[in-house]
Amino acid sequence: MDLKSQINLDALPKHIAVIMDGNGRWAKQHGKPRVFGHRNGVKSVREVTEAAAELGVQYVTLYAFSTENWNRPQLEVTALMTLLVETLRKEINTLNKNNIRLKAIGDLKKLPSKTYKALLEGIENTKNNSRMTLVLALNYSAKWDILQATRKLADAVAQQELNSESIDETVFSNALSTQGIPDPELMIRTSGEARISNFLLWQLAYAELYFSPIFWPEFRKANLYEAIIDFQRRERRFGKTSEQLIKS
Ligand code: IPE
Ligand code: IPE
Ligand code: MG
User: Fold this and answer.
1) What is the pLDDT of residues 52-95, one digit of tens each?
2) Are the C-beta atoms of 133 and 100 separated by less than 8 Å?
3) Which of 76, 84, 188, 238 is the most buried (most CB within 10 A)?
4) What pLDDT sits at residue 246?
5) Does the residue 152 lie in any domain?
6) Is residue 95 part of a domain?
7) How many domains does the chain have?
8) Cα 33 to middle of ligand 3, angstroms
């Protein structure tokens, strides 16, 4: 039986988050500069986005650039930002054809103005699409996200628009950059690294984590199917016992 037909479409994760990792190592393996890996990673972005939309997943969040990534060599940062602009411009038609809405999370205003502009254009031009939402995490850091939410809520309390007692999980979630987006049930990281790297710390609190040894530029639809099948075999207990889950 092929992989896709092993997926239970009634039990899909609504939201899949991906740490796209291993571009540099993949390029090195091929005797090429790191940027070659980033360029080839675009095909994987297309594949995963398309496969997820075809299945009926509602949200895919891709970690494209972390706040810590500014510390990379200037040449690589510039190349990444240029690639982003290029890709955003090129892929808008495909997103529209596939009825996919683009969104972004992160400290976006600190992106180079060209990147920021291309991003806003992409978001604006796809805002009425409804099949799936593709969220790009750009200049994203989970600690930044938690801090900006805290600041927003603190301001609201200071302005007496909010009572501190009423800050619960829902209120806090709504102050995060992922406001309105359900928490990811599945988080995939490629390249064999097993860490979160400052990605969606609050939102991943109960996500199933899936680590693939494959470098991002080689990640294909079949690899996403494998991750979803693995996810569907897991028992999500949320603190309860296995017996409790079987009874209910
Ligand atoms: C992921 O691949 C892409 C970004 C972080 C932008 P890397 O560039 O981190 O590749 P490795 O981890 O060095 O192989
Ligand atoms: C995480 O990958 C960030 C993105 C995928 C954009 P990194 O390759 O930057 O993570 P670390 O530094 O190895 O943890
Ligand atoms: Mg990496």
Assistant:
1) 999 999 999 999 999 999 999 999 999 999 999 999 999 999 99
2) yes
3) 188
4) 86
5) no
6) yes
7) 1
8) 14
pLDDT for position 247: 81
Domain harbouring 42, CATH code: 3.40.1180.10
Q: What is the domain extent for residue 222?
A: 4-141+186-234
160 Cα distance to chain centroid: 34
Of the candidates 116, 113, 118, 62, the residue with the CA atom closest to the CA atom of residue 88? 118
Pocket of ligand 2 (CB under 6 A): 19-21, 63-66, 68-69, 193, 195, 197
Distance 63 CA to ligand 3 centre (A): 11
**Residue 69 appears among annotated catalytic residues:** yes
Which one-letter amino acid corresponds to residue 95?
L
pTM tops 0.90: yes
Catalytic residue status for 96: no
Residue matched to tokens 């017996």: 243
Ligand number, closest to the Cα atom of 195: 2
